[in-house]
Amino acid sequence: MSSMASGTSGPRSCDTFVALPPATVDSRVIFGKNSDRPSDEVQEIVYFPAASYQAGEKLECTYIEIEQAEKTHAVVLSRPSWLWGAEMGANEHGVCIGNEAVWGREEVSDNEALLGMDLLRLGLERADTAENALAVMVDLLEKYGQGGNCMESQMVFTYHNSFLIADRKEAWVLETSGKYWAAEKIEEGTRNISNQFSITTKIDQEHPKMRDYAKSKGWWDGEKEFDFSAIYSYVNTARMTTSTGRYCEGYKLLNKHKGNITSETMMEILRDKESGINMEGGFMTTGSMVSILPQDPNLPCIHFFTGTPDPERSVFKPFIFVPNITQLVKTSSPAFGPDDPVKKKPRFLTKPDRRHELYKQHESAAVETFKAKSKEMLEQIRKLEKEKISMMESILQNGYLDVNQAVNLFSQCVEEEINTYAICLRV
């Protein structure tokens, strides 16, 4: 996500992509996202198993408490390590969600409520399809609202949210403005979202009072065709896919590869620096995710996460949901419990060291070797990534998954990545 925090630059945000047949190879849905956040923020990869709860139990999200669900699904998340919610993730049913910061005519609330990242995790924990996740998220949005500081800082940084929600069959774009929202269903081809509203006149679900509210504010006369982006934002929707900017660049890159999109294509798009999709600077790409969602329910969904900044010099590591997954220790940040500066009021008075083991090793390798031996390092980590991609491809082609191996799949790859850095640092 990114920033109007400084007040000097325009909004910048993440980029989220989905490609569905016939745009993809082998009848798969391919999902991808770059999370663009403050450059010193650590993103961790964490796994939470399915769980059951007693009636009346409460759930503490980043800032507020809400009612807990009776049951939650297993989830894997890539999240800024200071908060409860997540920037992107997947659940055991093959639902994937990514979110974006968006700004429009409606003022953003500073009041602490649910963050967009909390809504994302709640959608994954409580829904078994993309459409059900949409329903969960809008119900919670209407009940609790969205708002609160989205950055681990005393400088307040807030935004509305848009989401791309995908499963094995379809995808949904959900765009919100305060408690109002519109959703568009995607059944084939490609779609991306960035830091602007992108739903125009194709609205498949919406807040029941969304149009009345726009009328009451004088944004819509009730006569013209209802165009969500044109009415709720300041963007000229006619120019969205032709003007410069990452939304447009992402749209072009997806279209360039239409018909041949694979997980590797999606990784290439996320690594693209020229388009600004792989962001550098004060706000940068701090984590990336690519998922393969086969339409055949007998095949596993495969989710790749970096857990480190800059996908160009990171490894996309595979994760598959199976029972009894090994906890992801080396991509989990330290926990500070009730002493965490996020939990104490006033919040964010101090900033603890949240780096996990993989982050530390990746950072050392970047400082020590990327200048002197960047080519050699990149070759080694790309080789590791290619091995993992071809291993995953053989699982999908053969339809055979060794469950015992999958339990340690992600953790094992993290170990191999850490070892690769250690070897390159020694040489």
Largest sheet: 8 strands, antiparallel
Q: How many DSSP E strands? A: 18
Number of helices: 9
- Cα gyration radius (Å): 21 Å
The end-to-end distance, rounded to whole angstroms, is: 37 Å
Strand order in space, largest sheet: 3-8-9-10-11-12-13-15
- Which residue ranges are poorly predicted, with pLDDT under 50 across at least 5 consecutive positions? 1-11
Helix content: 25-40%
| Oligomerization state | single chain
**Which percent range describes the beta-strand content?**
15-25%
Q: What is the overall silhouette?
A: globular
The average pLDDT score comes to: 93
Give helix and strand order, one letter per element, not per position: EEEEEEEEEEHHEEEEEHHHHEEEHHH
| Helix/strand/pairing category | alpha+beta
Quick take:
The chain is α+β, with helices and mostly antiparallel strands. It has helices at residues 116-126, 130-144, 210-216, 228-232, 246-256, 263-270, 357-398, 403-406, 409-426; strands at residues 15-20, 28-38, 43-48, 51-52, 58-60, 65-67, 71-72, 75-80, 88-91, 96-102, 160-166, 171-177, 180-186, 189-193, 205-206, 283-294, 302-305, 317-319. 28% of the residues lie in helices and 23% in strands.
